Amino acid sequence: MKHQEHYITILLSLDDPDIHSTHILTIDHLASLLHCTTRNVKWIIRKLQEEGYIHWQSGRGRGHHSTLTILHTLEHVLSLYFEQLLGQGKLQEAAQWLQHPQLPHPYIQRLQYRLEQQFGLHIEHHGSQTLDVLRINQSRILESLDPAFVFTAFESHLIGQICSLLITYQAESQTFKPQLAHFWESDDTDRCWTFYLRKGVRFHHGRILTAQDVKYTWERLRDLDSPAFWQFTHVESVVIHNDYTISFYLQRSDPFFLNYISSLCMAILPHDHDIANKGRQLIGTGAFRLTASSEHHIVLDAFDAYFEGRSLLDRVDIYFVTADYQADRRYQLFRQNKATDYTDPAQVNYKVIGCNFIMFNFCKEGIQHDPKFRQVIDMLLDRVLLTEQCSDYWLKPAYSLFPWKSKQTHATTYSLEQARQLLQQTEYQGQPLNLNYLNRAENHAVCVWLQDRARSIGLIINLCPRDSFASKAVMQQADLFMGQEMLEENIVWGLLNFFSNRSTYVRQLLNPAQLQELDNLLVPFIAEPLPDYSKHVEKIEQFLHTSFLFIPIYHSNQKLLFDPSFQGLYPDAFGWINLSKLWIKPSIQSKD
User: Fold this and answer.
1) Taking burial as the number of CB atoms within 10 A of a residue's CB, which of 62, 111, 185, 407 is the most buried?
2) Three-state SS for 99?
3) d(C-alpha 495, C-alpha 76), whole Å
4) How far apart are CA 578 and CA 345, in angstroms?
5) Which segment of the chain is annotated as a signal peptide (predicted)?
6) CA atoms in the 13 A half-sphere facing the CB of 460
7) How would you write 165-202 as a 3-class SS string?
8) pLDDT score of 340 more than 60
9) Can you give the pTM of this predicted structure?
């Protein structure tokens, strides 16, 4: 395959790479183009001639030039090479060719379509066995799959497919449902919570789950100083009564404790298996077991012994490919290697609870400590104008974390001249400010839009995109951050986690005095098992918004397009599907 890659690179460097055309080329030029030595170039030329790709006439003597004659079209060889990459599962390498600056646009469209066909639901035949295989693409690298440190929506979704919890929260009924624990109870003071485990539940490595695994999971959060351990600092002790009974003893009454137990950080792990390699060797009791893991590809296979019933899917292949792939068509169906006609797809719309926002780095000296300067940024963020001018991304103006509150808000809009006048009242002296954001198309478009408006009033903003979530070094360098918060189905717990988990922007960017004031406002949230958050959140948002500590920008409404043959396709709060419930309804011909 390497010689095909060399051939394609040569042809893309030519102005007119038509078949049978002849071009004057030197060995030195080809060595520079192919990033190799002249000796290797001569070997490549000989190989291309033997394979019938080119005819090479070596120039002999002064004034005689070497010539290369093209014997195969670029389209033919590129398509063949692309298919070989796809057949070998090298989707990342294939996607990189789509970014080649010399690749003609019609070729990009055809190859992009072939790449998209690799994703979605495929039916594979292995002898007499038929497998339903879902292939998903993610356009960024995989973060940690360790429940103690997981922070992103996609990784949380994967852990939920691999691992199980003691209990789960049900958004529809606002109640808790048994999972690994079939029953639980608390004493009269809500200081002792006891859980009774199912019997016969197996981990993916074969061992039966016991109460020791539950205690190990909690102790691991504590010993690793997990950012999620804020939920369990008031646990005094964890006592195993027998293999299937365990109690948590608290230092104070806590009717809200079930919300913590149902959070993903308490996904139960086996005590005899230490997670290695940044959490990618995860073992749980969930519907899928992790059977392969690399930087660009992980494989989930259905776990036949899953205690809630085997998944209807057989395998899930997840690729991490940087490509312009349509996420809303994640659940396509391909039959006989041909894509289903999407002239009339089924569609699921879902609203994300949360928003994209701007925050400021109060742990660093700078103009961002001036409330008037922060107000300038808020004035520049004309949400209605933003969503109109970035209409490709289906955005809605945000003035709150909650879409329904934003819809009811009648916000004041300001002209650029008003923003300029307020900026002149600050001590801003023209110094550039760094705006950090996760490098996605939607985020980049919004940040460029803000940068242009800031420039028009004399405010210089440098854009600092990143490919993964911010490290401490990145946090220290940036002045502004654009982030996104999507709340869990358990909204109250999601709010608490957003404001309390030290991995969030809130805990990392606010100063100690600001955090203390915020923490005081959070206390009423946990006074009852499932509190009414609406009566408390107003004070928190007022605290954050009045001083422009947290500036909501926009909400993202999402949609999923899918083949009508799919069944069990109901997105969660993050737009992900419970893979164990997904299945294909086959076409059944009526009997004549």
Assistant:
1) 111
2) coil
3) 55
4) 20
5) none
6) 6
7) CCEEEECCCCEEEECCEEEEEECCCCCEEEEEECCCCE
8) no
9) 0.81
